[in-house]
Specification:
Structural class: mainly alpha
Radius of gyration: 23 Å
Oligomer: single chain
Number of helices: 6
Distance between the termini: 56 Å
């Protein structure tokens, strides 16, 4: 299994997700009685190097880049982008805001 996962042209994080899915499938097969429950899940032995590391370093926009970007946004998206940038909010946090949060 490790050799097959290593041969895939995917990011380590994606390989770790596939490993997790296969582990869940094995657990389900044991639960449903398709494989003996006394057998150890073989996916527990599979290791994926670098699964918790970022593939690339995130890049932040400069002030000038953000201003150029924001110029092209229509309302209310311009205000939302400005709010997220100034307060450090994620988009889901911005969308969940209500007027009572501002008061």
């Amino acid at each position: 299994m490790e050799l097959w996962l290593a041969s895939l042209a995917l990011a380590p994080k994606s390989k770790a997700h596939i490993r997790g899915l296969l582990r869940n499938i094995w657990d389900f097969a044991a639960w449903s009685g398709d494989v003996p429950t006394e057998r150890r899940n073989p996916m527990e032995l599979v290791r994926i190097k670098g699964a918790s590391k970022r593939a690339s370093t995130p890049r932040s926009l400069t002030v000038e880049e953000f201003q150029q970007f924001a110029q092209h946004l229509a309302e209310p998206f311009h205000t939302m982008a400005l709010l997220c940038c100034c307060l450090g909010l994620r988009i889901s946090e911005c969308l969940a805001l209500k007027w009572s949060d501002v008061d």
